[in-house]
Design a protein that fits this description.
Order of helices and strands: EHEEHEHHEHEEHEEEHEEHEHH
Structural class: alpha/beta
Shape: globular
Distance between the termini: 36 Å
CATH architecture of the largest domain: 3-Layer(aba) Sandwich
Number of domains: 2
Strand content: 15-25%
CATH superfamily of the largest domain: NAD(P)-binding Rossmann-like Domain
Radius of gyration: 19 Å
Bound molecules: uridine-5'-diphosphate
Length: 323
Amino acid sequence: MKILVAGGAGYIGSHTVKALLGEGFDVVIFDDFSTGKRDFVTGGAVIEGDLMDAAAVRKAFRTHDIGAVLHFASLIQVEESFRDPQRYYRHNLGTAMNLLEAMFEAGVRRFIFSSSAAVYGIPQRQPITEDHPVNPYNPYGVTKSMVERILQDYDRAYGLRFVSLRYFNAAGADPDGILGEMHDPETHLIPNILLSLLGKKPVLGIFGTDFPTPDGTAVRDYIHVTDLAAAHVLALRSLLGDKPSEFINLGTNVGISVLEVIRAAERVTGKPVPYKILPRREGDVPVLLASREKAERVLGWTPRLSDIETILRTAWAWHRKSV
Ligand code: UDP
């Protein structure tokens, strides 16, 4: 039995493929390499194809004996989702629907979905537990919550078993130095800091210093991508063990401000980070913190590499070598 990993050549997908291979799973990567990288394929079979092509997706299930699906392939830029929501709805819903339909045709009923803290919208309380109301603010977050709703309906109607993993701020790089974070355009804080240190981007912009936080900059919950990958393996084991469907936050409940990330980057790299202060980015909330109680209780997950120094050390090692 093989595990189909849609988007397995992307940032989080490739780290998860590495973790799955390390635990002896047989993996099939389905990726169109639009944002995924060939260098990020560390093993398994590869199908180069478009998840919007329903026939190609069905063919994957006829060619391989698939037992479960992990779906990472998604458009992820919040700002772009405001400008071009049609693209987001079509892609993020269409890819999930095609995968689910092809799964059912092949009799596969186990699905792990890459969701996001964006489903919660403007937080009413911190840390955020999974029973916090789902009320996304940006179109990207709406696509994630719509897929979650589809999953619930398919669970009831067709016996689908899913784990929807709501990521907080994925960061860092594979400690072996093979994989890392690279988006184009890059919008995330940590790669932007490192790119500015490598002279690949002009000075870093800080989006807002007037938040109601101790130093005025926004506080986020950073989780190392290797810890995130480990949680996917645990979620897969839970589904293979016939456990019920779940929504689970993946974060650490440790808040770090933008200025604290910058100071930590200066300590780790030994270089000063040049920055300028810019207005807030649309939709950025002051604080986002995950309760990790459910991930620990249901999956037996513990973060091991998610302290900010380790995140920055692994990210810097990869960026210095690869960018
Ligand atoms: N941020 C920033 N400069 C950048 C990128 C991000 O100040 O070049 C801030 C952003 O406003 C947010 C935090 O850093 O408060 C984390 O942003 P990121 O895009 O990495 O993740 P998000 O929390 O938006 O998903």
